[in-house]
Each structure stands twice: as C-alpha cells, then as structure tokens.
Amino acid sequence: MGRRQILAAVGWLATTVAATLVGVGAIQLVGKGIAGTPGGVRDQQEVERALASTEPAPPRPTRSPTGSPTTTPTASASPTPTGRPTGARSSFSTPGGTAVAECGPAGARLVTWSPAQGYREKEAEPGPDDHVKVRFVGPGGEYELRVRCVGGQPVADPHD
Questions:
Q1: Of 12, 62, 81, 134, which has the fewest CB atoms closer than 10 Å, so is most exposed?
Q2: Taking CA 89 as the corner, what is the angle to CA 106 and CA 152, rounded to the nearest 5 degrees?
Q3: What is the pLDDT of residue 80?
C-alpha cells in the first residue's frame, strides 16, 4: 500500500469520526431542548406516576353545552383586519372544548375553537350561516356545540 492510499484512508476515517461526533452531539442537543428546557423521553415509572397523580374527569356524555356561555361583547363598530365591523362575540364551553362565536350580517360564525385536553375536533362548520357547529370527541364522549344568532347575539342552540 502506498503512502497516498494510507493518507486517504486515514483522512476518510477522521472525517467519518468527526461527522459521527457532530451528529451525536446534535441529537443530544435536540433531546435536551434547544432552548435549554427539560424534555426527552420519560421512562415507564415516570409515566405511571404522572397518570396516577391526575384525577380523571368523570365521563358525562351529552350533546349540548353545559353551563351558561360566557359572553364577551365587542363594540359593533370595532373593525376586523379586513376593515369590516364585527358583531357581538360570546365564548361557549363544553367538557370537550371551547369556542368563540360572533354574529354578523351573514349570520353566525365560529371565530375560534379549541378541544379540551384529551379531545380532538371531529367536525367543524364555522360558517357564516344560520347555525354553526363544532364537534369534539374524546374519552368522556362526544360533545357538539351549535350556535345561532338571536337579536344579534350568539347563543348556544340546544338542538335536542
């Protein structure tokens, strides 16, 4: 074997080792969190302790919102990013998630909605329309929130 071949093999080996070390270092950095926040993988005992410490909510399958909606009125002349005025807004809550709706010239419209922890959005019809709805599904059942406008105010529609 000539001197060139030995130098080429040593150079290739050194480059491979350096690339491997950089890759392992990057994986460790990402595993610890780029911003220095703790993260990583939990072992089985940590998961079991975390699950045992939280109290599960009792399942209450119902199709209509529980409680009364929290209303947050907005001035009817407050402009949106498009420059059009908005109507009154109200927020609604079910065990499956929450939603904010508003009334406008075209009817009711879901502005935002968010499933509760452990739930997911199954279906959403944000409108604008006469009736708008969002449906959440999770371990406690399925919850549907329907909203319509009455006198320019969004109200939960029991639809039972």
A1: 81
A2: 50
A3: 45
For residues 8 and 15, give the distance between their C-alpha atoms in angstroms, rounded to a whole number.
10
Residue type at position 58: P
Tell me the per-residue pLDDT of 133-152, one tens digit each, with 9 for 90 and over.
999 999 999 999 999 999 99
**Token pair for residue 148?**
């319509």
Quote the tokens at residue 104: 């406008």
29-66 pLDDT per residue, tens: 776 555 544 555 667 777 777 777 655 544 444 344 44
Residue 20 CB: number of other CB atoms within 10 A? 10
Report the C-alpha gap between 87 and 106 in whole angstroms: 11
Helix (H/G/I), strand (E/B), else coil: 16: helix
User: Could you tell me the strand order of the sheet in which 89-94 lies?
Assistant: 70-72, 89-94, 97-104, 107-115
The token duo for 8 is 């080429």
123 is written with which tokens? 């279906």
What's the chain's Rg over C-alpha atoms? 27
Q: How far apart are CA 136 and CA 115, in angstroms?
A: 6
Q: Which helix (H) or strand (E) holds 5?
A: helix 3-32
